[in-house]
């Protein structure tokens, strides 16, 4: 269903609903799964941030434009709860995706395991600005035609 611009899908099992998958799309991110929604300022967070994220959570975040990742905060269970960006898994507190360049369509994948949790992460996308192409107009050329000469 759609509520307040967000896409929701309830996960139901024999025991009833166990959670909701939230999806949001902004100019910066398209978020699917157990992550907090992206904001208009270009940031996305793990679910529950700045409180601890949950166990067995996963989400996929797609960059909607090119830019570089600015890590506002990053704290995950070292070795187990990982954010994978362009094929590299980041985890712990010292190993972060700060400054990683993204292209539109690049995917970030988040997975937490079934044990310890931490405060998670907040990432922002600093959009890459493409300079406007410059055009140079050549200076006009002038040709001088000699005046006709007359002989008498």
Quick structural gist:
The chain is mainly beta. Helices cover 0% and strands 43% of the residues. The chain contains no helices and 12 strands.
Characteristic key phrases:
0% helix; rod-shaped; disordered N terminus; 152 residues; four-stranded antiparallel beta sheet; mainly beta; eight-stranded antiparallel beta sheet
Low-confidence stretches: 1-22
- SSE order, as H and E? EEEEEEEEEEEE
Mean pLDDT equals: 79
Q: Which structural class fits the helix and strand makeup?
A: mainly beta
Rounded to the nearest angstrom, the radius of gyration is 26 Å
Largest sheet: 8 strands, antiparallel
By DSSP, the count of extended strands is 12
Distance between the termini: 99 Å
Could you describe the 3D structure shown?
This protein is an all-beta fold. The protein has no helices and 12 strands. The chain has an 8-stranded antiparallel sheet, with no helix packed on it. The chain has a 4-stranded antiparallel sheet with strand order 5-12-7-10, with no helix packed on it. Strand 1 and strand 2 form a beta hairpin. The radius of gyration is 26 Å and the shape is rod-shaped. The N terminus is likely disordered.
């Amino acid at each position: 269903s759609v509520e307040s611009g967000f896409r929701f899908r309830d996960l139901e099992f024999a025991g009833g609903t166990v959670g909701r998958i939230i999806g949001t799309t902004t100019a910066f991110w398209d978020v699917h799964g157990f992550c907090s929604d992206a904001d208009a300022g270009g940031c996305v967070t793990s679910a529950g941030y700045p409180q601890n994220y949950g166990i067995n959570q996963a989400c996929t975040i797609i960059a909607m434009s090119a830019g570089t990742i600015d890590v506002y905060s990053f704290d995950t269970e070292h070795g187990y709860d990982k954010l994978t960006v362009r094929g590299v898994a980041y985890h712990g507190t010292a190993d972060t995706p700060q400054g990683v360049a993204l292209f539109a369509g690049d995917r970030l994948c988040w997975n937490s395991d079934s044990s310890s949790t931490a405060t998670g992460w907040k990432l922002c996308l600093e959009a890459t600005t493409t300079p406007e192409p410059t055009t140079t107009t050549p200076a006009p050329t002038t040709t001088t035609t000699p005046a006709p000469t007359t002989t008498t």
